[in-house]
Amino acid sequence: MLSRSIARSRLLAVPLAVALLAAGCAGGGDAEPGAPETSSGAAPTSSAAPSSSAAPSSASPTPVPASSTGPAENWPVPEMPAEAKEQTAEGLKAFVEYYFDLINYTGQTQDSAPLKAVTSRSCELCATAFIDVADLNKEAGAWIVGGEHDVTVFTSHSEEAGTGIATFGVVVAPMTIYNSDGTLNGEAEEEEDILGAISTEFDDGWTVVGFDVSEDS
User: Fold this and answer.
1) How far apart are CA 197 and CA 168, in angstroms?
2) Are strands 143-146 and 149-158 parallel, antiparallel or unpaired?
3) pLDDT given at position 60
4) Which helix (H) or strand (E) holds 96?
5) Is the pLDDT confidence value at 86 over 90?
6) How much is the pTM?
7) CA-CA-CA-CA torsion for 127, 128, 133, 136, nearest 10 degrees?
8) Which residue among 1, 48, 113, 191 is buried most deeply as judged by most CB within 10 Å?
9) Which residues pair with 18 in a beta bridge?
10) How far apart are CA 72 and CA 171, in angstroms?
């Protein structure tokens, strides 16, 4: 039987503590964003052709990973594979792998919206370990570098009633946490052999309703 307790597991203890510490010492910068200046001067006396340098670029911004200087920028949102949309055991396996891709994206960017879209608020651990952490850090201006989750899905079962469950093992990479002013908040070593299970429901797509880890992990 899997337990909601995540003692000694960095999935909850480290990120949540970091988020709360960061929120407490962020200091809430009061700098006002500079509004773009608007010109109210007279119109030019001659009609000038638009500069070629003003033409919009069709190139996508270069993704920049999270580092000591800030969270990731222009980081691509993981795309759900077609198989992950199927109500089958194979589809559930693909979805769980995609879900961990979203967890990694959330940690890199502090953007929890894509993860929220496929997570029920009834999943308390999803909120406290991943979603709330990202939201708190974003609000505080803090960020995480590393901490990527490398998952292996062991089993997946899809029931006709529209429910599913998958078991997994995950390795969490080393993590460094920075405060809003760029100072070091804390570090965590690699965490191995975290075992758990994800409970899901299917209604035009999978939604995570439960996330459990073994108390012995």
Assistant:
1) 6
2) unpaired
3) 79
4) helix 89-109
5) yes
6) 0.76
7) 90
8) 191
9) none
10) 21
